[in-house]
Design brief:
The protein is an alpha/beta fold. It is built from 16 helices and 14 strands. The strands form 3 sheets. The protein has a 7-stranded mixed β-sheet, with helices on both faces. A 5-stranded mixed β-sheet has the order 3-13-14-12-11. Strands 1-2 form a two-stranded antiparallel sheet. The structure holds pyridoxal-5'-phosphate.
């Protein structure tokens, strides 16, 4: 191969940054991050920018000549940072928080440095075994069955897709046992009308239209009605369809509603259906003993998902998926290409020692082959804070949500639109004498006005057709002072 011109490699060692330059630039990056974390409120939580502004500031092609790290970091600060949404800001109360924490940053840096790729146990024993350990630690902390198989995906949407794939596999195996063939064009599943869109998407991804995901009506607490579920299953069976699964939610996206999992688990058992529990946001609360009642029956699920990147201060992306039936995933997804077979899915040293059965090859349980070392940040966060401190922070968030809910309940021109079971408050301004349409419009204006201050970022949902302002408390640095300031703003900006 022809050697590259000497000047191209001038600043580099082994084609990469020299160790000295890396150290210097690394220190500058850590300093930037430390300052950023020390003063999150210096920035507007939502940038005041328009689409295309960043694109217009950047060249249309990649540079031919490399630049110094100092220059790139300065451009990051000058050009990129003004377009950031500050998910780490204590005033970020939109969607669900995904703010991470400082130990999570350190772990991500190490994970990027070692850049391990989880294919087989052999391709990174550290990744595979830390994933096994951390998912077990989390199961124990949450009171979930310790023998469940745990693995870490990027998102709850992908975790739920895996649940539906496993459910289809189980249904196909049961059909074969009874001498029949599962007609994939006739499979249906069930969830509530308040479930996250990822459930419906999973069914679409399997080639069934979204209508094959039946959305069962909820009660006035936004929880699935088990009677409606039973009737829908019976109706579908008599129409010759094949029910395969139910997804129950603990902590729905719009209002944190909790489906009655014990009753739903009975229905799943009676009908031989896979039960998946989506606790992507609220699952973290299961580490609090006083919150366990919301998770009753979850131990009977076939699969369960919780996102530590939502409310457990782990950096995006970290979605922990559990299943009591890993063999269904393996039977659906264990296609080992030859090049991975030749390096042996069980490592030679493991075979020699007779320990090969202990080697977990996560690729056999997932669509993704190469997987990031996500367990490292979960390990750092669990070790840095311990479950005691994590519990303290979550408990405080729940207290802050209840405090805001109390203020709302006492205010004559505001109202709550859903029970506050976790750390989300669904509220709206209720101007006297206003129609529903006028009330919706007033709340849309109010949300825009609050977000325009740059102090807070709130999002909305529709509950029973009513426009609802969602205040999702979940950032590690949010305090009572922030919640009190938000309440002051909500009242002062209403109907401006
Ligand atoms: C209850 C619930 N499930 C699933 C999801 C999807 O999560 P992800 O973005 O990890 O796919 C969300 C997102 O907020 C959610 O609230």
């Amino acid at each position: 191969m022809k050697a590259p011109p000497a000047e191209t490699l001038g600043a580099f060692t082994d084609n990469d940054l020299s160790p000295e330059d890396f150290r210097r630039a690394g220190h500058a990056v850590v300093d930037w991050i430390a300052d950023y974390y020390a003063h999150p409120e210096r920035q507007r939580v939502l940038p005041d920018v328009l689409p295309g502004q960043l694109v217009d500031k950047l060249p249309s092609g990649a540079p031919q000549q490399g630049a110094a790290q100092e220059e790139i970091l300065a451009d990051f600060e000058r050009l990129v940072a003004p377009h950031l949404v500050h998910w780490n800001h204590p005033g970020f109360m939109a969607y669900f928080a995904a703010g991470g924490s400082r130990p999570g940053v350190l772990a991500e840096a190490l994970s990027a440095a070692v850049n391990n790729v989880g294919l087989l146990w052999y391709s990174s024993p550290a990744l595979a075994e830390l994933e096994e350990v951390t998912t077990r630690w989390l199961a124990v902390a949450m009171g979930l069955p310790v023998e469940w198989f745990g693995m870490i995906h990027d998102s709850a949407s992908i975790a739920t897709l895996h649940a539906v794939i496993a459910a289809r596999e189980l249904a196909a195996a049961k059909a074969r046992e009874s001498g029949a063939e599962l007609d994939l064009n006739r499979i249906v599943m069930y969830t509530s009308e308040q479930a996250h869109s990822s459930v419906e998407k999973a069914m679409s991804a399997l080639g069934r239209g979204a209508e094959a995901c039946r959305k069962i009506r909820c009660d006035d607490r936004y929880a699935m009605r088990p009677g409606g579920l039973e009737r829908a299953i019976a109706r579908d069976r008599s129409a010759g369809l094949s029910p395969i699964a139910i997804t129950a939610t603990v902590g729905t996206t719009a209002s944190t509603g909790v489906d009655p999992v014990p009753e739903i688990a009975d229905i799943a058992a009676e009908n031989g259906l896979w039960l998946h529990v989506d606790a992507a946001y609220a699952g973290a609360a299961a580490i609090l003993p006083e919150m366990r009642r919301h998770f009753a029956g979850c131990e009977r699920a076939d699969s369960f998902v919780i996102n530590p990147h939502k409310w457990l201060f782990v950096q995006m992306d970290c979605s922990v998926f559990y299943t009591a039936r890993p063999e269904c995933l393996r039977s659906a997804l264990s296609l080992t290409p030859e090049y991975l077979r030749s390096s042996t899915s069980r490592a030679p040293q493991a075979q020699r020692s007779g320990q090969d059965a202990r080697a977990v090859n996560y690729m056999e349980h997932s669509i993704a082959l190469g997987r990031r070392f996500r367990a490292l940040k979960l390990w750092f966060v669990l070790r840095s804070f311990g479950t005691e401190h994590l519990s303290k922070v979550l408990r405080e968030h729940v207290r802050l949500a209840r405090l805001l809910a109390d203020w709302v309940a006492e205010a004559p021109d505001f109202e709550l639109l859903a029970p506050v079971d976790f750390s989300l408050v669904c509220l709206r301004y209720r101007p006297t004498g206003a129609s529903e349409a006028e009330t919706d419009a007033a709340n849309e204006r109010l949300l825009r006005a609050v977000n325009a201050t740059g102090e807070f970022f709130l999002s909305h949902a529709k509950l029973e057709g009513r426009y609802t302002i969602r205040v999702a408390i979940g950032n590690i640095s949010t305090t009572e002072a922030h919640v009190s300031r938000l309440w002051e703003l909500l009242r002062s900006l209403a109907d401006r």
